[in-house]
Write the structure tokens for this entry.
Amino acid sequence: LAIRRITCAGEPGASIPTTKRRMEEAWGAKVYDHIGATEIGAWSYECMEQPGGLHVNEALFLVEIEDIETGEIITEPERPGKMVITAFDRIAQPCVRFDSKDVIQWAKEPCDCGRTFRLIKGGVIGRADDITKVKGVLLAPTAIEEVVRGIPELGNDYEVIVDKKGDIDEITLKIEILEEALSRKDEILASLKDQLRLKTNLGYKIEVFPYGSLPRYEVKARRFKDLRKKGH
Ligand SMILES: [Zn+2]
């Protein structure tokens, strides 16, 4: 197949460097991320420079970022918050300060491509419903995906379950190890735990499953489950 470019939407994968790399290697094509929503329109795109983030199309949209807990407007870079968006070109169904529940953050530097439309770093880094405090630490599921897909011996599929043991939050990460790598299981798990602690500041209970046994998703993946919320 002579596919040269792939544009992805609907999931954060194309902005997670290790997932992007897996897709680019599998297809032999460049992978670009794009974010939009039915209620809003196509509000962002990744340019050819691929700066590790997406430009907001500021000719047609006003994007604001609010602190998830306080609602304070965030203007400084690299502080995640909830996106609130206004579309300038919608007439039939106006979109004024729409809460998309996407969690994003401004990038520190402008893009080398020369566009002055602001960049959001790392694309959509989570959903406001999924970004949650675990043991008092903010956890974005995309950070876990970045680690899992950066380890070549692990399969693409994984699941994260947050639950409470007594008063203590516990995170279980279910992963698959490729069959040919099973002999090095201990070494792989040690490296996985180290990287997770580094990227997310949290400890995990790891459960290893045979390759091919975790759920596969065809549309939007539901890999993150917070069981602490049941009954609320
Ligand atoms: Zn650019």
